[in-house]
Each structure stands twice: as structure tokens, then as C-alpha cells.
Amino acid sequence: MKCPNCGSELEPGKIYCEHCGHEIQIVPDYDPLDEVLIEQEEPEEMKPDSFPVLEESGTTAGKGRKTSGEGKRTSLRFRYKSLLFLMVLLICGCAFTLSYSVMTSDNNYSYQLRKGRQYEKKGEYEKAIMYLRRAQEIQNEKNGSDTEALRLLAEVYAKTGAKAPALTYMKQAVETESLARGDSQALQELYLDLMELLNETGQTELVGDVIAECPYPDIRDALLPYRIEKPACDTPEGIYNYYLRLNLSAEYGSIYYTLDGSIPTSESTRYEGPIELMEEGEVLLCAVAINKKGMISEPLVLAYKLDFPAAGADTDDDN
Q: Which of 6, 53, 77, 274 could be bridged to 20 by S-S, CB 3.0 to 4.6 A?
């Protein structure tokens, strides 16, 4: 090692030059391994020029992580709000649909008619009547001419045994169809339904009047086979002291009768000639006429009593 001032050789370890007295500063040789070891021993010490960069980088990374977390939370909140909004919208839609359905079904003729028909098939006649009457009210409000509700009302009332309303609604159906379309196949079918209704409810005595009042010749001719009338007897009821021969007659249909008061059917005794009453006692004659259409007339009911005098009894008041 030489003196930097005079260039004289220096002995190792000397800090002054022996020739010129210049102070010697000893600088250790640079070794990269020493720097690595220093950095490992003191990891927290950082170079001044690199510290701001690392601090800024660290801060940026932190902000990045914070921004990512907040983004996830924001996304979840958005999804939750969207789901909640859809649920509220769905509930409101269902409520509106239900209320609208109730409002429209109450004023919907087809709906009321369909429900009435369903309950009629189930045998729940009170509910059927409720829906069918509502259907007819809707028809009346709209001045409609469909007769199905009226026809079904007549049918349901007939099944409950209510003769008067059954006949009223069926006549209304005939009248409505007649006013709307006049002479038609549908009108003839309604007249035939009316015939069946009269037979079912035991009001066949009105058949003749319905036929006579029908203004359509073709339909009237189609109804003629349905004519039926109650049989007649040539002997009035009462008490008799002699044998009786009862003659029955009916212009339409065959006559069937019983002598115990029960209503005759096609399985009962058919009238072929005079009925002879030969024994004492009471007899309750009941006779009906049945035509080829199966229409059964109103029954004829007559009470007879045979009370014969005792043999050899003197009926002369003077003796």
C-alpha cells in the first residue's frame, strides 16, 4: 500500500506516512457477500432510495386488496337487493293475478257456467244452482242469447224435485232461443228437452198445451208423438151394492193399471178390456197411459166400495 500524498510504501497497519506524515484512511475492500450477509441480518433496514417505492407499492397492494374485498361485498349486496326486488315483484304479481282472476271470474260467463256444470255432475246441486244463476245474470246484463245456463238450471231444479222453477227456466230457454234464432234445430232440441222435463217432473198434463202453443209447424209435428193424456173411466167412484165393469180409455198411449192404489208402470197390468169388480170390499183403481216415447200420463185414481146386501134380506121398507 502506498501513501496517497507522496507515494512512499507504507507498512501494514500504519495510519500515518513516515515520509510525509499524511494521515492514511483505511477503506476495506468491497465484498458482495458481506452486503448479502448484512441484508440477511438486518431485513428491516432498507435503502433510502428504495423505501418510498416499497412503501408506495405496499400501499397500492393494500388498496388493491381492500378494493377487491369491497367489490365482492358490493356485488353480494347488489345480488341480494336484486333477489329481494324480484321476490317482491313476484309476490305483487301473484297478488294482482289472484285478485284479477277473482274479479274476472265473478263476471265471466264461461267460468260460472263451467263451475255450475262441474257441481251438477258431482250432485252438489245447491252450488251448481249458485254458479248457474250467476252465469244467467251475466247473460242478462250483456243481453246474451246463450241458453245453456237456463237449460242446466231447469235440469238441476228438476233433480231436486222443484217442479215450478224447473219448468220456468226451461220455458225461458225456449223463449230466448226462439227470439234469438227462431225456428232452428237448437230450438227443436229445447222443445224436446221440455217434453222430457215434463215427463220427469210428472207434469205431462201440460204437454198438450205446449204443443198447441208452439208457433213453428215443423217443431209442432215433431212433438206430436209426445202427446199423452190421463185415462178416463166410464164409472164414477163410489159405493155400489152390485158387480162393476169398468171401461177405461185414453186417446194417446197404452193404459196400465193397479187396484191397490200404487202408481202403475210399464210392468203393471196392461188394460186390454173391461175391469170386473166381483168381490165385496174396497178397491183403489190407479191407471196411467204410456206413449211410445215413454211419456207417462197423470194418473187416474178412483175409489170403489162394493157392499152387497145379505142373501134373502128384505129391502122393502113397507114389510
A: 6
Q: Which long-range contacts (CB under 8 A, 24 or more apart) does 259-265 make?
A: 259/283, 259/284, 259/285, 259/286, 260/284, 260/286, 261/286, 261/301, 262/286, 263/288, 263/299, 264/288, 264/299
At 137-172, the pLDDT tens digits run 999 999 999 999 999 999 999 999 999 999 999 999
Residue written as grid cell 210399464: 266
Give the model's pLDDT for residue 98: 57
Residues with Cβ within 8 Å of residue 208, at least 6 apart in sequence: 227, 229
Q: Which residues pair with 249 in a beta bridge?
A: 232
- φ, ψ of residue 276 to 5 degrees: the values are -100, 125
Measured CA to CA, the distance from residue 151 to residue 167 in angstroms comes to 10
Distance between CA atoms of residues 103 and 106, nearest Å: 5
Interatomic CA distance for residues 203 and 104, integer angstroms = 40
Q: What confidence tens digit (pLDDT) does each residue in 60-117 have?
A: 444 445 556 677 777 777 777 788 888 888 887 766 655 545 445 889 999 999 999 9
Q: Which of 232, 207, 247 is nearest to 301 (CA)?
A: 232
